[in-house]
Amino acid sequence: MKYIIVGLGNFGSSIAQKLTALGNEVIAIDDSMEKVDHFKEKVTHTIRMDATDELAVSDLPFEETDIVLIAIGEDQGSNLMATALFKNLGAKRLISRAINPLHKKVLEAIGVDEIVHPESETAERWSNKLHLKNVIDSFELNEDFSIIETQVPEKYVGKTIKELKIREEHDLLILTIIQREEKTTQIGEKEKVDKIEGIADPNVELKEKDILVIFGKNSDLDSFIGEKSSEKNQDD
C-alpha cells in the first residue's frame, strides 16, 4: 500500500518507519530539513514541504495513495490547515491527529475518516491498523503476535464459528464477537457502543455487522486479511 505521512515528530516518524519496514511505500513530509535528513534512510521517501502550501501539496500523488495521515501535533493551526487542504485535494482516506476535544470536533466538521489520539494510542497499534486492510483495530502483543478486530467477511455471514474452521485453516483463534451499535446520547450526539459477547461460543451464528476479535501470528493475520481483500475486489 502507499501512504503519505505529514509530520515527522515522535508519532509520525514511528508510524512512517514501521510501515516502511512492513514493505509499504511511504512518503513522509515535514517542514524541518533536519528531520527529513534524519529519517531519509529509514523511510521510503522523505520530503521537506510546508503541508499548508496548496501549490506544493497539490503535486503529491493523491490518486495512487491509499491513506493520508496528518500526524502534526505541536501546531494545532497547521494541523487543521493541512487536514482541510488534503481533504479538499481528494485524499482517499484521511486520518488526522487530535490535540484536544475541541480540535477533535473541528476535525469531525472537516470530514476526516478517522481521528488519532497518540496520547492514548501507540504508533505500533496504528501501524498495524493501517497496514492490515479491513482491520478496524489492532493490538500488537509483540513483534510476532497481535489481536485484531475485523468485520465478518460476507461469505461467513450465517455460519457458526465452528463451521468456519479458522483455527484449522488459518491457525487463528477467534476470541470473541463484538456487535457495534449506534446510540444517541442525552445531548443528542451519536456514539458507537460495543456489545461484547464474552468468550466466543463455537455454535453462535455470525451476523452481517458482527466484528471478530482474532488472535494469532502477524503473518497468519496478514494472510487472512489479504484473502478477504482479494475476495472483496473480485466481488467488486
TrEMBL record:
GO terms under biological process: potassium ion transport
Naturally occurring in which organism (per UniProt): Psychroflexus sediminis
InterPro entries, alphabetized: NAD(P)-bd_dom_sf, RCK_C, RCK_C_sf, RCK_N, Trk_Ktr_HKT_K-transport
GO molecular function: monoatomic cation transmembrane transporter activity
Lineage per the UniProt record: Bacteria, Pseudomonadati, Bacteroidota, Flavobacteriia, Flavobacteriales
Residue span(s) of domain RCK N-terminal: 1-116
Protein name stated in the entry: Trk system potassium uptake protein TrkA
One Pfam family recorded for the sequence: TrkA_C
Domain of life: Bacteria
